[in-house]
Amino acid sequence: MFNRKDRLQINKKLKKRRNGPQGNVNWRFSLPGSILNNVQTKELRAYITGELARSFAIFCVDEIIIFDETAKIKQEKINEYKEGNWSGQDPINSNNCECLLNPLDSMHHLRATDIDLPFREGIVLEKSSKKGQKCFVGLERVNERDVTLINSELITPNKRVTLKLEEPKGSKKLKGYLTNSKQIREEAGIYWGYSVRIAKCLSEVINNSSYDFIIGTSERGTPIEEINIPKKEGCKILIVFGGLNGLEFAIESDPNINLKNPTDYFKNYINCLPDQGSRIIRTEEAIPICLTSLKYKLNSF
């Protein structure tokens, strides 16, 4: 199934990239859901959301944390979002706004003819065999469409899973093991998408995880050239954006934060684009600017 020569070339490039100054960084991004509050139409809201997703994918961001800058969201509501139990119709699907979205085309969005990588996303099927459950992975040839899951606990049908495919030995039928994006990145150096979680408030984003370097962003921050980013293997960098009223509003609204000045809360409070020519840089514009500046700075080490 796999083209060994092509795979070796891919792995060689990925190893070089992984060992580079920015290949060791784990990017985390946090921003409030209110950034879409002043978007005029549902179509534009869908498009901007898609562009944010593309920026995160292009720059290999590992995790997105959406927080409530008013600190009023309840845990029950967060659980509903996690389970997908939203009331009413899906605003994107019900109004055909998906046609406005540009495809992410990430490394894990493989085409039917992509057979060089042993990793693939799949959907667990209703059917199974004595050897295990069947999983549809969307390959072009008929005998490669369904993969048998090996050494796996029973999985609910129609669930999306990440697989590592086995080289066929004697049998033409494909077999695979369950894996995840973290294992793929550690083993092969391939970026395999980002995860998303929801936080009740800003302090929950900062306090509930371990980061090596935390950055707050604002036009009132210190120029990015003046900060020093640690060069560390697997360095976890969290970048926090404010909403329409800035990080100041999120800090004031958070009952767990006793400070009022963002410069006191964030040791690294930066401005990614000093001397900007527009009064306001929108979040969907600021994110790629910020990541470009940070990656350029890491490359200059």
From TrEMBL:
Under the heading PANTHER family, the entry gives: CLASS IV SAM-BINDING METHYLTRANSFERASE-RELATED, METHYLTRANSFERASE C9ORF114-RELATED
Where in the sequence is the signal peptide annotated? none
| Pfam annotation, one family | Methyltrn_RNA_3
Query: Which CDD domains would you find in this protein's record?
Result: HsC9orf114-like
Q: Which InterPro entries match?
A: Alpha/beta_knot_MTases (IPR029028), NA-bd_OB-fold (IPR012340), Put_MeTrfase-C9orf114-like (IPR003750), tRNA_m1G_MTases_N (IPR029026)
Similarity annotation: Belongs to the class IV-like SAM-binding methyltransferase superfamily.
> What highest taxon heads this organism's lineage?
Eukaryota
Protein known as: RNA methyltransferase
